[in-house]
Design brief:
TIM Barrel, 16% strand
Length: 269
């Protein structure tokens, strides 16, 4: 039987980790099931497990966030039925269209915003997502804090750092991370859980290793500076490079194409 994973605590004081979950515990059964989706998920789970063990960790130490930006709701429902519990979207508007009614049908689902967030989209983002992974500037921190206070509910966030310094990508400069993390820690309404980065698109995944190791080193430095919080999450690695990311300490990998890329019939409109 395929390995199953569900969140332990996406927004609490521990981690964005996962634990084994029996298929019999899932109450959701979609109308149809892609014959190839279980195979692709199994392959990803095996690769995550192998990379985890090779780096001296256990498979349950790494969360698989299924990136659903290119697929429709049917694919998401099927992935949930097969045991995936963490789902990532890039755009708030697209996520609302596909996922607004997910929670009543999918207990335990955890939604990650992994794309850049405009300050004017903070209200719907906080309403829908369990964690915002793309916090990278003071103006966004201020907007998130204001909305979280208005709602009376703290918001879990990751600080996105542009380790590779690619101008076309979001994320703060590494030298700004300390100042931004201090601001996050000082907020009574924001809960910093760790760091996120996006590596460059390269032909050889090994070329991303310095980026991932750089984020790991930065996380250790920030943790020493901020001992009152647990910066346990390193969100790094995607379909082409997640093995390298795990070897460099990733606790959360964002995987879309390796899971859903073959599902042409479920491409999002």
């Amino acid at each position: 039987m395929m390995g199953r994973y569900a969140p332990v605590d996406a927004t609490g004081d521990r981690t964005l980790g996962c634990r084994p979950l029996s298929l019999s515990l899932s109450p959701f059964h979609p109308k149809t099931l892609s014959p190839s989706l279980p195979t692709h998920i199994e392959k990803v789970l095996t690769m995550v497990a192998d990379a985890s063990r090779s780096s001296g960790r256990q498979p349950e130490d790494v969360t698989i966030v299924a990136v659903t930006k290119t697929v429709n709701r049917d694919a998401i429902d099927e992935a949930y039925a097969l045991g995936l519990r963490h789902f990532g979207e890039n755009r708030v508007q697209d996520a609302w269209r596909k996922l607004a009614d997910l929670r009543p049908r999918a207990p335990g689902a955890v939604l990650h915003l992994i794309g850049q967030l405009q300050s004017n989209k903070v209200k719907p983002a906080i309403t829908l997502f369990d964690i915002i992974e793309s916090v990278d500037r003071i103006s966004l921190i201020d907007a998130l804090e204001k909305e979280a206070e208005r709602r009376g509910e703290p918001v879990s966030v990751l600080l996105q750092v542009n380790i590779a310094r690619e101008p076309q990508k979001g994320g703060c400069a590494p030298e700004s991370a300390s100042m931004l993390m201090e601001r996050l820690v000082r907020s009574p309404w924001l809960r910093p859980r760790g760091l996120m980065t996006i590596a460059p698109l390269v032909a050889d995944a090994e070329e991303t290793r310095p980026v991932f190791s750089g984020l790991h080193i930065l996380r250790e430095a920030l943790q020493r500076q901020q001992p009152t919080v647990d910066l346990v999450t390193l969100s790094m690695g995607m379909s082409d490079d997640f093995r390298v990311a795990i070897e460099e300490g990733a606790t959360s990998v964002r995987i879309g194409r390796a899971i859903f890329g073959h599902l042409a019939e479920y491409q999002s409109a």
